[in-house]
Structure formats: structure tokens, C-alpha cells
Amino acid sequence: MNVEADDVVVERPVVATALVAGVAAVAYVGIQLVLDRGIAPVETAVFVVVFTAVYVGGNRVLRRRVRGGDAEPDPDREGEDAGAE
């Protein structure tokens, strides 16, 4: 992973979220212009909100898993690693 990008996500989550939303908006408007020759503002806003929420939420979940910070262990998986040792 890019260490500098990781620093921005950790140190300035609002800036990172705004950057993701901005990139999503520009990309979606570009696609609309190429395919439809017009911009649908409500459709673009819905896409940006959903894309940003999924991207940022997924990033947080993956970051928590990499750090090993799962708050509660999954009770269904407790016995799976018992025989591995």
C-alpha cells in the first residue's frame, strides 16, 4: 500500500472522505457525459453518497482487521483454530 495515502486516511479522515467523494463525483459525471450527454444531479448525488459510504466503511473494516482490532471474537469461529496447533 501507499504509505503516504495511509497517513492521510488515518490522520485526516474528513479530507480523505471528501477526496473520495470528489473523485467519485467527477468520474460519475464523466461517465454520464460520455453515455448520456447530460448530467443528472440527483442520480450523481445518490451515487456519490453510496460509493463514498461503501468505500470509507470498507476501508475502516479492513484497517481494523489488519490491526487485529476486532472488538469481539466471533463465537461461531472459536473452535475452528483449535486443531491447527
In short:
The protein has 85 residues and is mainly alpha-helical.
Spell out the key features of this protein.
69% helix, mainly alpha, 3 helices
Explain what the structure shows.
This protein is mostly helical and 85 residues long. It has one domain (3-67). 69% of the residues lie in helices and 0% in strands. The protein contains three helices and no strands. α1 (3-11) packs across α2 (13-35). The longest helix is centred in the middle third of the chain and has 27 residues, at 41-67. The two termini are 31 Å apart. The model has no long low-confidence stretch (mean pLDDT 78).
Number of helices: 3
- How far apart are the termini? 31 Å
Please give the number of β-strands. Answer: 0
Total separate domains: 1
Largest sheet: none
The Rg value, from CA coordinates, equals: 19 Å
Q: Name the helix and strand elements from N-terminus to C-terminus, one letter apiece.
A: HHH
Instruction: Please state the oligomeric state of the protein chains shown.
Output: single chain
Class per helix and strand makeup: mainly alpha
Mean pLDDT: 78
Give the topology.
Layout: H1 3-11, H2 13-35, H3 41-67
Helix pairs in contact: 1-2, 2-3
